[in-house]
Amino acid sequence: MAYSDDTGLFVKVIKYIEEELKNAVSATENTQTNADSILGDMTTLKVQGQNSITQVLNQRNADQAKIKNIGRTLLIAAFVGIGRTIDSPQITGSTVNDIALFFRDWRVYQDVIADEKVTARAVFYAAEPSPTANGTIVRCTVDERGQKIESGRHDSGVTVEVTSKPSTFNATYGIYQAAEGPADGLDYQAASNTKVTYAAISRTTPGGLVSNPTLVGNADTADDAAVTVINNWTLTNVSGTPTPKIEKTAAKIFRAQNDTDFAISVSATGTTWKIAQNMPSEVLSDPYAPVAFAVPFYMNTGWTGNITLGWGSKTQIFTASDLTANDWVWLIIDRDADMFPNQFDQDDPEWSVQIESTSANEVVMGGVFAAKPVKFGGVYYWVFSDQAIATLNTKFTMADTNSNAGIIQDTLGFVFDDDDEGAYLMTTGTNTLSDPA
Q1: What is the pLDDT of residues 289-319, one digit of tens each?
Q2: How many domains does the chain have?
Q3: Could you tell me if 335 and 250 lie in one domain?
Q4: Taking burial as the number of CB atoms within 10 A of a residue's CB, which of 150, 319, 320, 395 is the most buried?
Q5: What does the pLDDT read at residue 49?
Q6: Which of these, 105, 174, 99, 93, lies nearest to 145 by C-alpha position?
């Protein structure tokens, strides 16, 4: 069959499921509305009669909730045809081995071969919360193609909460939706009942993707001692004669725990200093798992210059305007497709930090960190510790919304969202795979 024939069948299946769902949960004249009307008007009946009616109506609602399972069976049959046409390796016989990987293959075909899009579900992702003394929350809401992720339950906002502090310098954050969860299988626009946790990135929980993230190894760790060696890092004077030094001033040590901790300051006008190391294989082990590369910096008043973070084939430049005088600020790479290893992979990929100073003032580096995320609602989250100690039960909120537009995309959401299977299609492209009428 041609691709158009495969997608034609797929759209007809979507229409069948969408109409069944519409009949069950429509705002007027649907089974649930009528059942609620009956249940609210049984006061004249004896208890036995009330129980009988309630049992029958609840069973009917349960029967309708099976639409989701019926829809899954119908869609997987349609996926098998599409998968064969687009040569997805996820198809074995009449089975889709992995729904998420199948949809990844399909999006590649839509983007590269068909230049095809569907009508968006219209998920709106709110801005990340502003950093506070209780942490910095970041998230990636696009996939490795830069495509907005529209799988998951997004009709309710997301809360990130400081839920535990195993020790003074460690904090764990819960990520969840505070709204009420679904009443039944038809209630796909309710909040998710799931909750995930994430240990905030800091000196004590550095993320595991950088060797020697706290930059130890110099022979002399006295205050203002010249830095000539950092274990596992290659140091390069790119231009001029930079003056990297050991920094022991308490305020300029990121989350200092004892007298042996230190940071590294860099100064000297017209100089550029760089540190770099090879990435461990773990970074590239899953090319579709995004990685956050982040460095905390403390800027003395008057410092000017550029800081360039490099990860594999990608670089990002920050300036003094991205920092705050006399305070710690996390410089974190942008949350876009460049976070995914399949985008930044190259021969012998490196982590690197390059500091170009155009003034005699100091800028201080508190460590170098990289971490994989936790996934919630199909979206990727990280938490980075502040210099201060987090307070239990502090909450950050993001007021996400979803208009549930786009019949194809929204029906896929109804059938697959609870399983967080990444079932969504491209919403950018020239040719439109049209919603059913």
Answers
A1: 999 999 999 999 999 999 999 999 999 999 9
A2: 3
A3: yes
A4: 150
A5: 80
A6: 105
